[in-house]
Amino acid sequence: MTQIREFEVTLSDGATLCCTATGQGIPVLWISGLSGVGDFWDTICPSLDGVMSIAFDQRGLRQSKRGSYDVSIDRLALDAMAILDHLALDKAHVVGHSTGGCIAMSMALTAPERISSLVLSGSWAGPNIYMSALFDWRLKLLETDARLYGTIVPMLSSTPKWLIDNPDLLTAPTEPWSIEQVTVVKERIDALMVFDRRKDIAELAQPCLVIGARDDVVVPVFLQEELAEQIPDANSYFFEHGGHFFPKSQNSQFISLMANWFISHRSS
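The structure corresponding to this sequence follows.
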């Protein structure tokens, strides 16, 4: 049976991060997207042999406390680094999906010596007219009807086949969102809309794998191709299908990619 350990990291502003460590072996920190929850990786982490997978709920989400600091991508990167400090890890591989990829890039640019390798999954380096329009629309929907927002996101992010296999995602939640929940998501979107590391990513020196899906309408594949082109010596892999949530809809293939990557960079 895969070993799972729960722990909590307390930050200097009173925020707390609820974390899990799954398995044993080389350390890998998994950072999820705008939802910011660790269980995004639940179908992936237990399947990787020889890996200690660390996942967490980001500040203000689920049982993790919000704290008092302003939220930015750089702040969320410092939060993630605090988990490595808590575990006394000098280095770790970091996998970030979507918003998590932005956080991972900030970690790698701020403290490159702490990052063994970087996997950027469905992510991007900076704003463009498409992403600005999409997030502006999502903000308006969030402020108008947060429960509808919560249903539209998987519709945007998933393939129809995967949604048919997971029909609970097609039903709007009955519980209303609290003001605090809306505020946390809104400030995360605001942080994303000003994130821009296009001028910096050529400095990334770690082994890097860029993964995308050609039918992703949340983060279009051309933004992921841009990452692969601008990061020195980056490897890349693009699924033909899978939508934005391709780690879930292409689960077995994604796990295989990760297993091969960590085997190839075990000594990084």
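Residues 129-144 form the longest helix (16 residues).
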